[in-house]
Structures are given as structure tokens and as C-alpha cells.
Design brief:
79 residues
């Protein structure tokens, strides 16, 4: 894939390991069904920060939605 200019897909465990602590916290709350605003309030950060963390998480995991996020990482363990 690299020779064709494509990035190889990471194995799921590698992708999860690539998430920062903040990305994992935001993803866990999103998996619990909280809205971006609720996540921001709980973590005492801006909604824009939550959106940024989710965007980076989606990119790292190769997903495009919260539904796909659930499929990619399933239920979380409390960190």
C-alpha cells in the first residue's frame, strides 16, 4: 500500500494505542451517549476541543461517525 501512496491500515490495537489520553476520554464519553456539549461540560473544556479530539480519533481509527466509533472500539474500560 505504501508504494501505491496509500497508508496501510493499522491493526485495531495499534490504532487504539495511538489515541491520546484526551482522545480516549472524549471517545469514552461519546460512547456513553453524551453530546459534544455534555462532554465539554464534564471535562471542563470547550466544545471546539471536543470536536477536535473526536475528529482526530475518527481519523486515527478510520471511522466517520459515532456509530462507527462504537464498532471500532466497542465498549470502553474506565481509564
Amino acid at each position: 500500500l505504501e508504494r501505491l501512496g496509500e497508508a496501510p491500515r493499522r491493526r485495531e490495537s495499534e490504532a487504539l494505542a495511538a489515541l491520546t489520553a484526551g482522545e480516549r476520554r472524549v471517545a469514552a464519553l461519546a460512547l456513553d451517549g453524551l453530546t459534544n456539549r455534555e462532554i465539554a461540560e464534564q471535562l471542563v473544556v470547550s466544545v471546539k476541543a471536543v470536536v477536535g479530539h473526536l475528529s482526530k480519533t475518527y481519523r486515527k481509527l478510520g471511522v466517520r461517525s459515532r456509530g462507527a466509533l462504537v464498532a471500532a472500539i466497542g465498549r470502553h474500560d474506565d481509564d
